[in-house]
C-alpha cells in the first residue's frame, strides 16, 4: 500500500475535485438505510481533507449535493441538509487547525436558511486562512452555473457594459460560480460509476479522470494516494505531441 511519502511533491495536482458517490449502496450492502451511508461518508470527507492538507494541495473541491439531488425523497434531502449543518459546526476546528479556507459553489439561495447561515458563518470565519481552499459544491449543477453566467453576460451586453466581440474564455470564467478556482487537474469519482453527473463541465476540459470502484464511506488516504500516483504517471499533452513536451 502506498503512503503520502510516495507522492512526488514537485508534481502535485493543483486542483483535485471529487465526486463522492456510493453512500447509499454502501449502506444497503450492510442492510441499513441510505442515510447511514451519508453519516459514514462524513468521516471520509474529514480524512480526505486532512490528507490533501498534509500534501499541500492548493484546491480541493467536493461534490456534496447536485441540483438533481433535490429530486430525491424528502427524508433523504432533509437528512443530508441536517448532516451538513452538523458537519460544518463540528469541522470548523479541523479547518482552522489545517489553515483551510472554506468556499462554496452552487445555487445558494435554494438551500434551507439554516444551512446557508451555517455555511456563510464557516466561510467567513475561515476566510483569513492561507492554506488550502476547500470548496463545497452544494445545490450545484454545471449547466445551471453556465446558464447563470450566460444570463449575466447577456444583461451586460444589453446594458452596453461589454460588447459581444470581447466575450472570451476569461470573461465567461469570471461569471461562473467557480471563478476563483483554477481548472481541475485531477477528477476522482468513487463508487465505480464512470460519469460526470453535471459536475464542473467547464473546469474539467483538460482534467485527468480517475474512477475507483470503492464506495465513498470506504475511501481512505491510500486510495487518494493511488489516484495521485496515477495522475503523476500520465503525460498531459494539452493537444501537443509528446515530442514537443520533451
Ligand atoms: C453520494 O452517494 C452522496 C450524494 C449524492 C449526496 P449516493 O447517495 O449517490 O449513493 P449511491 O450512489 O446511491 O450509492
Ligand atoms: C453525483 O452523484 C452527485 C454527488 C456526488 C453529490 P449522484 O449519485 O447524484 O449521480 P448519478 O445520479 O448517479 O449520476
Ligand atoms: Mg450516487
> Can you summarize the main beta sheet?
6 strands, parallel
Q: Which ions, cofactors or small ligands are bound in this entry?
A: 3-methylbut-3-enyl trihydrogen diphosphate, magnesium ion
**Side-by-side strand order of the widest sheet:** 3-4-2-1-5-6
The CATH architecture term is 3-Layer(aba) Sandwich
Oligomer: single chain
Number of domains: 1
- Work out the strand percent: 5-15%
* Helix-and-strand structural type: alpha/beta
Low-confidence stretches: none
The coarse silhouette is globular
Helix proportion range: 40-55%
What is the CATH homologous superfamily assignment?
A: Decaprenyl diphosphate synthase-like
Radius of gyration: 19 Å
What does the average pLDDT come to?
A: 98
Number of continuous helical runs? 8
CATH topology: Undecaprenyl pyrophosphate synthetase
CATH structural class: Alpha Beta
How many E-type strands?
6
Order of helices and strands: EHHEHEHEHHEEHH
Distance between the termini: 31 Å
Protein topology:
Layout: E1 15-19, H1 23-29, H2 34-55, E2 59-66, H3 74-97, E3 101-105, H4 113-125, E4 133-140, H5 142-158, H6 169-174, E5 186-189, E6 208-211, H7 221-232, H8 242-245
Parallel strand pairs: 1-2, 1-5, 2-4, 3-4, 5-6
Bound molecules: 3-methylbut-3-enyl trihydrogen diphosphate (2 copies) and magnesium ion.
Amino acid at each position: 500500500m502506498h503512503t503520502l511519502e510516495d507522492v512526488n511533491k514537485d508534481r502535485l495536482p493543483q486542483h483535485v475535485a471529487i465526486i463522492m458517490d456510493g453512500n447509499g449502496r454502501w449502506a444497503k450492502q450492510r442492510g441499513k438505510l441510505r442515510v447511514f451511508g451519508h453519516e459514514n461518508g462524513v468521516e471520509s470527507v474529514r480524512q480526505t481533507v486532512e490528507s490533501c492538507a498534509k500534501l499541500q494541495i492548493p484546491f480541493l473541491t467536493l461534490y456534496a449535493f447536485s441540483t438533481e439531488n433535490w429530486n430525491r425523497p424528502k427524508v433523504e434531502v432533509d437528512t443530508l441538509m441536517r448532516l451538513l449543518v452538523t458537519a460544518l459546526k463540528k469541522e470548523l476546528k479541523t479547518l482552522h487547525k489545517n489553515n483551510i479556507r472554506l468556499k462554496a459553489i452552487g445555487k445558494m439561495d435554494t438551500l434551507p436558511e439554516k444551512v446557508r447561515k451555517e455555511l456563510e458563518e464557516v466561510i467567513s470565519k475561515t476566510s483569513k486562512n492561507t492554506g488550502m481552499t476547500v470548496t463545497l459544491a452544494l445545490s450545484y449543477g454545471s449547466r445551471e452555473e453556465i446558464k447563470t453566467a450566460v444570463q449575466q453576460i447577456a444583461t451586460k451586453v444589453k446594458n452596453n457594459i461589454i460588447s459581444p466581440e470581447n466575450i472570451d474564455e476569461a470573461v465567461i470564467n469570471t461569471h461562473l460560480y467557480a471563478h476563483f478556482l483554477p481548472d481541475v487537474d485531477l477528477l476522482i469519482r468513487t463508487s465505480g460509476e464512470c460519469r460526470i453527473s453535471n459536475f464542473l463541465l467547464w473546469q474539467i476540459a483538460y482534467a485527468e479522470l480517475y474512477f475507483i470502484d470503492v464506495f465513498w464511506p470506504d475511501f481512505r488516504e491510500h486510495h487518494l494516494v493511488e489516484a495521485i500516483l496515477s495522475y503523476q504517471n500520465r503525460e498531459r499533452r494539452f493537444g501537443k505531441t509528446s515530442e514537443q513536451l520533451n
